[in-house]
């Protein structure tokens, strides 16, 4: 979810669910250790929150993980699933599936220096290395180094010839392979990712697995998250309407836009809030067309609420 699940997005998601575990967009070790910005900042309301880390140098991965723990992150997740050329050129992401020894070294070194868990997000294979033995060899080596939780995107990745978008759609899903992984490694936490579009589908996966990660389904229809607390965590808290969700964001919008953010930095994550509802197009169009005209304060959102309640 590079460039998507930033801190504004995660704050919005926490309004929708108080129990779901939130993940950052992938942040590279270079950005954390040498970048000019603060790439680890988050609002305490986001917790539990996981840093998804991109890198492959054990020393740099460990230094970034130590910083993450100091900031208060609940977990560090190593990205071994992203197939983009930019990521491959940096020697991280899905290409690391071919180097289980290196991933294992990163996990071992990181885990020796921090107290929070180090987990791995991966694919079921890459290119022509896509048989089950390749996957189990990877999981076996990395788990022996101290990783107890794997989040598995149930598609292989083609490192050459397909774009990241195509890699989310063209390689076929193979849920049975992830189910088999859990049967063969019952002592590990195995979560699944890829192609899950509803909470009902997530519930079906949870009959066989330990967790489900939703990405673009939530981004496109964020209100799905509002079902998670009740249907997954059995939390019967009163539900907020979509309008109430927007109202709950207003103080945050006011504070953040006074502190350097713009309305669009926040609004872009909320475009899908009324997905499938009457006047959803009006909501999206109003925010898109007017966010830059009203960059500071809550006027943009208050006007949008008025349009949705006419």
UniProtKB/TrEMBL annotation:
- Gene3D superfamilies per record: 1.20.120.1460, Aldolase class I
Q: Which residues form the DUS-like FMN-binding domain?
A: 1-293
Give this protein's Gene Ontology molecular function annotations.
flavin adenine dinucleotide binding; FMN binding; tRNA binding; tRNA-dihydrouridine20 synthase activity; tRNA-dihydrouridine20a synthase activity
Record flagged with keyword tRNA-binding: yes
PROSITE patterns (alphabetical): UPF0034 (PS01136)
Q: What is its EC number?
A: 1.3.1.91
InterPro entries noted in UniProt: Aldolase_TIM, DUS-like_FMN-bd, DUS_fam, DusA, tRNA_hU_synthase_CS
Q: Which UniProt keywords apply?
A: Flavoprotein, FMN, NADP, Nucleotide-binding, Oxidoreductase, RNA-binding, tRNA processing, tRNA-binding
Transmembrane region(s): none
Please give the cofactor(s) recorded in the UniProt entry for this protein.
FMN
Q: Which residues form the active site?
A: 82 (proton donor)
Identify the domain of life.
Bacteria
Q: What class of enzyme is it?
A: oxidoreductase
Q: Does the keyword Ribonucleoprotein apply?
A: no
Name the positions where FMN binds: 52, 121, 153, 193-195, 215-216
Q: Where is this site: Interacts with tRNA?
A: 79, 165, 168, 281, 284
Q: Give the reactions, separated by semicolons, that this protein catalyses.
A: 5,6-dihydrouridine(20) in tRNA + NADP(+) = uridine(20) in tRNA + NADPH + H(+); 5,6-dihydrouridine(20a) in tRNA + NAD(+) = uridine(20a) in tRNA + NADH + H(+); 5,6-dihydrouridine(20) in tRNA + NAD(+) = uridine(20) in tRNA + NADH + H(+); 5,6-dihydrouridine(20a) in tRNA + NADP(+) = uridine(20a) in tRNA + NADPH + H(+)
Q: What does this protein do?
A: Catalyzes the synthesis of 5,6-dihydrouridine (D), a modified base found in the D-loop of most tRNAs, via the reduction of the C5-C6 double bond in target uridines. Specifically modifies U20 and U20a in tRNAs.
Give the similarity note.
Belongs to the dus family.
Q: Return the HAMAP family for the record.
A: DusA_subfam
Protein name as annotated? tRNA-dihydrouridine(20/20a) synthase
Q: Which organism is it from?
A: Catenovulum maritimum
Q: Which gene encodes it?
A: dusA
């Amino acid at each position: 979810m590079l460039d998507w699940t930033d801190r504004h997005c995660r704050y919005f998601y926490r309004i929708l669910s108080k129990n779901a575990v939130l993940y950052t967009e992938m942040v590279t070790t270079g950005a954390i250790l040498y970048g000019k910005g603060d790439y680890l900042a988050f609002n305490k309301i986001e917790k539990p929150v996981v840093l998804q880390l991109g890198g492959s140098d054990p020393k740099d991965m460990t230094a970034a993980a130590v910083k993450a723990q100091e900031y208060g992150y609940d977990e560090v997740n190593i990205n071994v699933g992203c197939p983009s050329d930019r990521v491959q050129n940096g020697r991280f992401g899905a290409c690391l599936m071919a180097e289980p020894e290196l991933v294992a070294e990163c996990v071992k070194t990181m885990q020796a220096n921090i107290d929070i868990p180090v987990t791995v997000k991966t694919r079921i294979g890459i290119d022509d290395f896509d048989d089950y033995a390749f996957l189990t060899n990877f999981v076996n080596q990395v788990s022996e180094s101290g990783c107890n939780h794997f989040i598995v995107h149930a598609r292989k990745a083609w490192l050459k010839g397909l774009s990241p978008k195509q890699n989310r759609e063209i390689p076929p899903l193979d849920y049975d392979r992830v189910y088999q992984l859990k049967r063969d490694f019952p002592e590990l936490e195995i979560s699944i990712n890829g192609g899950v579009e509803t909470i009902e589908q997530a519930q079906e996966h949870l009959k066989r697995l330990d967790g489900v990660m939703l990405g673009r389904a939530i981004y496109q229809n964020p209100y799905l998250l509002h079902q998670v607390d009740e249907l997954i965590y059995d939390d019967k808290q009163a539900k907020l309407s979509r309008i109430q969700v927007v109202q709950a964001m207003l103080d945050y919008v006011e504070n953040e836009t006074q502190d350097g953010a713009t309305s669009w930095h926040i609004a872009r994550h909320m475009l899908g809030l009324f997905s499938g509802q009457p006047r959803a197009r009006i909501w999206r169009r109003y925010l898109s067309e007017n966010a830059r005209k009203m960059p500071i304060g809550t006027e943009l959102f208050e006007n949008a609420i008025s349009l949705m309640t006419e």
